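Section 3.1 - Work completed
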Amino acid sequence: MHAYTNSAVSAARAPMAMHLQPVSAAAPRAGADPLERLGTAAKFGRNHTIYFEGDEAGHCYRVKSGTVRLCKVTEDGRRQIAAFLTAGDLFGWTDHGGYGFSAEAVTDVTLEKFSRARIEDAVKAFPALGRHVLALLSTQLASAHGHLLLLGRMTAAERIANFLLELGRRQRNDGAVALAMCRKDIADYLGLTVETVSRTMNALKREGIIAFAEPENVRLKQSAALERLAMAA
């Protein structure tokens, strides 16, 4: 992976819009989103930093729209991306005093911002909310374990195949996958170089497995072939 300095990570932190006023906490209605009454809204522009690794973790967030990346910079200046988060994903929840990763907006994003203390109080009052938060975090933990497996055992082609298939499953857009992230983001997420990502995706294109409508839009032409490649590991 390429060197990535701390100054590059430190994109402007000011949100695009002011936070909205929070609504009062109350017992969630049956069938309602258990978190909807606890948060404030915030918007961040593309490549803005939401928080830095090590900042006091007084809040957590949920993505309403757009894409967020969680990343950190190693001592030798390399950037590692741990996750790409999209609508519905919760992030920033930690048992430690500071955030373990920096959170950055890949695209323009709309978020819900939650006071950690407020959520903890609400969980004590409404056990159903606690179960909801636990389910969200458990899903993300399973995804993190899958990512570690991907980095540890798979070839470049297998990593790319799994990445595209996972995006396709999340977006549910009939084989069309929108790549909100650039090739360098993909490389830093998959533990590859930008050149390897481009070379591998071009090879899949030549084989007729994928096609590019434009650089940020990929058509999964042969999902079965991608599945076989992904399962090869």
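Second construct:
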Amino acid sequence: AAGVQIPVDVMKRIDEALGDVVTRDPKIVSRSTPEHRFV
């Protein structure tokens, strides 16, 4: 949610739990993200 502040230690634990599942490279993310969402 926009404006929600997540503590640094929580973000670190989330990153550790997700490992390599998360793609952080914006170029790769933009290629796999649809141009329009049907929501």
